[in-house]
Specification:
single chain, alpha+beta, Thiol Ester Dehydrase, Chain A, 5-stranded antiparallel β-sheet, 5 strands, elongated
Amino acid sequence: METHRLVLRGDLNHYGFLFGGRLLAWVDEASWIAASMDFPQSQLVTVAMDRVEFHHSVREGTILRISCKQEREGTTSVTYAVEVYDERMGGGSIFSTNVTFVNVDGDGKKRALRD
């Protein structure tokens, strides 16, 4: 699954660069949407991002492409590889991570992805 985000002034820190936390929120949201589309009957919550390393700074007006691909499916969890690209700079990767979700019941206890 892919989605795009436009970096606006409200997404920037006081130095004029994209807040890292804003990008992490977009990555979490995009990968959750991908997982929810793959497992529509599941109640998925984020349990991990394997690394947080920004490869390039991002300025206002940048169009980001967020790509999410399922990497691993376990009994109760699923992991997605996420790449974020800067569409205006030749599509170079600015961030990558793996996001893991676990399926939970109404009490927050793990349950199988597939019944």
